Amino acid sequence: MRIDIEAYLDGLRFSVEPATAGLEEAMRYSLLAGGKRIRPVLALATAHAIGMQTEAVLPLAGALELIHTYSLIHDDLPAMDDDSLRRGRPTCHVRYGEAIAILAGDALYAEAIRLVLAEQRGDPARIIACLAELTAASGVQGMVGGQYIDVSGVVEEDGAELRRLHELKTGRLIGAAIECVLLLADEHTRSTTLPDFRAFATELGVLFQIVDDILDVTGTDVALGKPQGSDERHGKVTYVSRYGLEGARAMAAESHRNARAALDRAASGKALELAQITDFIATRTS
Amino acid sequence: MRIDIEAYLDGLRFSVEPATAGLEEAMRYSLLAGGKRIRPVLALATAHAIGMQTEAVLPLAGALELIHTYSLIHDDLPAMDDDSLRRGRPTCHVRYGEAIAILAGDALYAEAIRLVLAEQRGDPARIIACLAELTAASGVQGMVGGQYIDVSGVVEEDGAELRRLHELKTGRLIGAAIECVLLLADEHTRSTTLPDFRAFATELGVLFQIVDDILDVTGTDVALGKPQGSDERHGKVTYVSRYGLEGARAMAAESHRNARAALDRAASGKALELAQITDFIATRTS
């Protein structure tokens, strides 16, 4: 699935005139830096689990990665996390300057929504439902809201607030990768599977974040493609700082079991790819 | 019309939990700072010109102002134009800090698209066409692309490039305020009036920018709500720096005549409000 996604992302063009070619270059620099592509892979695997073809959801899958890339570019800015390395390369603002990095992020979001509007096939009413989920997951009640909570430092040593922060910051878009596909599906498939897939998506988002926090402590710079230990340097409350390394590992194991159980309810044996991705997210080293 | 728009914008809420209330506050600080509301007023006036009611396009009108506000917040950032005053008040980053200003802009865009998806009534296929125009007007081939050309300084002393910069940076969204309404209208109205309305919108965008450049030289800080002469300080190529004040005034007068002529072709006498807005844009002092 990743090869389909890489080819699709590589084929995307945003600029139609020389004057904006430099903006497209900055967008593609960050977009094609070789991330794990977890969100688009989840979208494709969800499609396969309910009998849809790869081609039927590629624009949505691409949009998910454009949105994720935009969030990384803005999160890395000096005013935010001030990170200089991402996916093993200089961050967008280090390479192109802050102004262009801000605009590259802005543009990636606009072009993500536009990609779905222009390329995604399906009943118009279903596409609107899909986009409503995608924009909710990336707005105040999603990704941007979560990043706000993160940078504003309102989370103290409170486990519930920490979980909520990550539900918004990463969980909602990971959830949208799954839910948006179901929103494009036929009425019967959607109504019978949506609640269980939602439970799976929520648990997967939590699992993703716990493992992310663990890797920030135990990973190496080379494997992560960014400096290890950056959460601690930024004074962030994480699952590790809150529950200790062993506590976080136990929570990850429980979250992994919960996610697999929810997946079994959602797709009972027909979702091998999603099961594999769940295991990958639980055991990944970068 | 402005009173309808102010009431609608004032009624918008973005945050549903205490943790993100501060983000909503920053969004509303910039959104409700009392701009001229030219884009939503244009949308409402266009709707009236083709027989649609105010209520039928308020979500779209609101979205246009959210997008415009987001672009102002990001354009004012230290890495961009580094402006500290906007609409007579400290800019968003001066008031709330850079990180929150970046996120407030990001969030306003997501919530703008979501507003149309959630609230705009109409045939789903027409809403998709409307949103496709809105996102095109605000992406690489529109507002963000124009801002990129502006900050990257690729425009030298070339009149055609200058006009193109402003077509993208401000013209496309001003055009979208008119075109998006037509895209929501019935097939007959749309097909018979779209080309003439497009010509009107293009000319109106040019007129707006020429007058903006003139006011940057002739206006006062108090009337403008921002420091006068900021274009010259930033070394920007403007209609005034390129053609002189008298040359720019002659171009504005010609553009005003062209816009009124195009409007007469589009709506032959049935668009009094749009004619008034055109005259206001040509003669405004702030």
TrEMBL record, chains A, B:
Its cofactor is Mg(2+). It comes from the Bacteria. It holds the Pfam family polyprenyl_synt. InterPro entries: Isoprenoid_synthase_dom_sf (IPR008949), Polyprenyl_synt (IPR000092), Polyprenyl_synt_CS (IPR033749), Prenyl_diphosphate_synthase (IPR053378). GO terms for biological process: terpenoid biosynthetic process. GO terms for cellular component: cytoplasm. The keyword Isomerase does not apply. Belongs to the FPP/GGPP synthase family. This is Polyprenyl synthetase family protein. It comes from Solirubrobacter ginsenosidimutans.
